[in-house]
Amino acid sequence: MNEMMSASARPLVLVATPEDSPGHALARSLEETGIPLQVTTTFESTLEAMGPGSCHVLLLDSLLPGPAGLDVLGEIRRRLPGGDPSLMVLANPAAGMGLAEALERGAEDGMALPVSAPVAAARLRVHIRMIEAARRLRHTEERFSLLLTGSNEGLWDWDLRTDTVYFSPFWKQLLGLEDHEVGEAPSEWLDRVHPEDRERVQEELQQHLAGRSANFASQHRLQHADGSYRWMVLRGVARREEETGQPLRIAGTLADVTASRLYDALTGLPNRTLMLDRVERAIARARRKSELIFALLVVSLDRFEVVQTQLSEHEIRTVLATAGKRLQQLMRTADTVARLEGPNFAIHLDEIRHVSDARRVAGRVAEALGAPIELGGREFRLSTSIGIALSVTGYERPEDIVRDAFVAMNQARAGGGNRQEMFDQKMQSEVELRMRLEADLRRALERNEFQVFYQPIVSLETWRISGFEALVRWRHPERGLVSPAEFIPVAEETGQIVPIGEWVLRESSRQMKHWQEEHPELDLSISVNLSGRQVAEPDLVDTVARIIDETGLRPGSLKLELTETLLMHHYEGAIQKMHDLRDMGIKLSIDDFGTGYSSLSHLHRFPIDFLKVDRSFVGRVGQDARESEIVRVIVGLGRNLGMKVIAEGVETSEQAGFLRDLECEFGQGYYFARPLDSEAAGALLPHAVRPVESEEGIFLVPRSPAPSA
Ligand code: C2E
Ligand code: MG
Ligand code: MG
């Protein structure tokens, strides 16, 4: 048929895909469809294989790794100046780059994985036809007419000398227009470009006409006959006068890529953009007909952060795709199931009759997603937190109903997960309260509203104070003392925790230095909590070093507390920083141990000196034989890993005695003392402490001999 199709023993399509990618399996199936192809699995072998004239199409899996830090797509693009071979991308969701982005970055065409072999083969054939077409187009007009059939793309040919454009019937069809409705002026195209894209398109076109780009490729929105805007990719090549390089005509293709911008590549479900669009229409309908109710559900897979640490990439994708499929199966056609970010899905229930319908659907969703998922022969179970918001609240903007459904979902999660919550007035006021808290928190540092309290940590062997944990308090001008349990999570979300935490560290280090100078014989230490955000800060180690320097505190008397959950999240970077801190002589504790989900096998990899047993276990010692047993196991575990153990939340003499018998080294809790301001804490210092219970509460009795065990 032509020189390219007939030429060869040489492969027509070069597929570059790593062995473990679904792209690889696709290549194998494509071979069976009769398309001659060659497969390469590394960046280097791909470069080697794609020498001049070696293949027509390079089908590049976006997951193909290059040498560290190299942008593979960009690099390969750079090596294909003449567009030979033509670059088609296999957008691999695991590579984090969508099809739209790949196209924007210079791939000539593409497909999103997963894609079936027959569809891929058809797309390849069309694409090959298209590139051949585009090449021949430059030579003869008569050959050009052959192409007009069979391709899924509209064609256009702009004669710059006469300033007229030929638009193919399919070009017009893509925009919902009849043949006779489109004339020959360039404005038929340019006037339909979305106003926000217009300037950019003009510029891209000028770039190419002026000879500064090898191909003209532009992704922009064009207005369809129905009034909506569709995302289109317009490609073309200019033909130039040989001597002057002056462009004579420019011709190419038009393809509708709207779908790839509105759907989630992994699950194939509508994405947030498409969902918001549907909700917006529902809001408009409900405004016209007030009896129409619709609901928005946000469905979130519980404990997903933990799931992520336990499953492989592939298994995580399977879990998400399965969840998406199950949701889809549950819904009526008028409803929309969308995938939002991470483990979150949204369901738009259109036109429900009664509020209880939304609850019923939520129940069915929980049940469907709760069914076991098969993962390589194992069964895996999920629970969900579901938030429901209803149109009766009277929403103006789709984003607002999504936000409220999220608030309700977070409420469900805070209640322990595996439940549903309806957004209501109470949550509304909580949202407002929370916004006020955020605003107040932003000013609290500069207004000096924070104060550090100190809770003694007592040696269970000598019954003496070995040090204190610094616990921050906020003196709110109107609300009085605000508990960290309330404001720390907010500060973590807004990032405020970084300066607040730094202040606490400086203040408590300074205070401890002062106490050490007063009581050099006591060998006191200070424990300071670090939040995940602080650990994620690149200059954490420098900040700590600077504060040690400023305050003159001996690094060996500083203990930094990191929660177990934090360690699981910031796994990679955290370990290095922990080693750096350790090298400075600082001690590290794992806080709230037992409440996270760290697998014991990971624990020994963290450089940890102290383990703090969470107070939820300690608090039930004496009441519950099983909890006592857990505490015994944790103390034993800590000892085996060479850590010292601190029991948090010791409230009774019975608990203190039990822990002492286990040879747990330290105790902390109301039995010994509550967190105290610096003056009250300092007053305890010269003394051994022995708690005495009386009608009025617990008192620390100074200077008494240690009780006999
Ligand atoms: P945490 O680090 O586990 O601190 C121990 C918490 O248990 C403190 O709560 C303390 O007052 C409380 N507690 C101590 N003994 C007992 C007891 O016998 N019974 C009971 N029921 N509770 C006891 P607090 O001060 O409200 O702090 C709560 C959490 O806030 C802390 O848990 C810590 O995670 C965080 N936090 C406090 N200050 C800071 C800080 O400066 N920076 C960071 N990042 N987090 C902080
Ligand atoms: Mg702590
Ligand atoms: Mg704790």
Note down, in words, how this protein is organized.
This protein has 4 domains: 13-146, Rossmann fold (3-Layer(aba) Sandwich), CATH 3.40.50.2300; 151-261, PAS domain (Beta-Lactamase), CATH 3.30.450.20; 268-423, Alpha-Beta Plaits (2-Layer Sandwich); 439-703, TIM Barrel. It is of the alpha/beta class. 42% of the residues lie in helices and 24% in strands. Residues 455, 471-472, 483-485, 488, 497, 501, 504, 529-531, 561, 591-592, 615, 648-651, 668-670, 675 line the site of ligand C2E.
CATH top level class name of the largest domain: Alpha Beta
| CATH topology type of the largest domain | TIM Barrel
Tell me the number of strands.
Answer: 28
- What distance separates the N and C termini? 97 Å
Can you give the mean pLDDT?
86
Supply the CATH architecture of the largest domain: Alpha-Beta Barrel
Number of domains: 4
Sheet of most strands: 8 strands, mixed, barrel
Full CATH superfamily name of the largest domain:
EAL domain
Number of helices: 28
Low-confidence stretches: 1-10, 141-150, 702-709
Bound ligands, named by name, code or SMILES:
ligand C2E, magnesium ion
Task: Please identify the structural class as seen in this structure.
Answer: alpha/beta
- Largest beta sheet: what is the strand line-up? 18-19-21-22-23-24-25-26
Indicate the radius of gyration in whole angstroms.
33 Å
Shape: elongated
- What is the helix content? 40-55%
State which percent range the strand residues make up.
15-25%
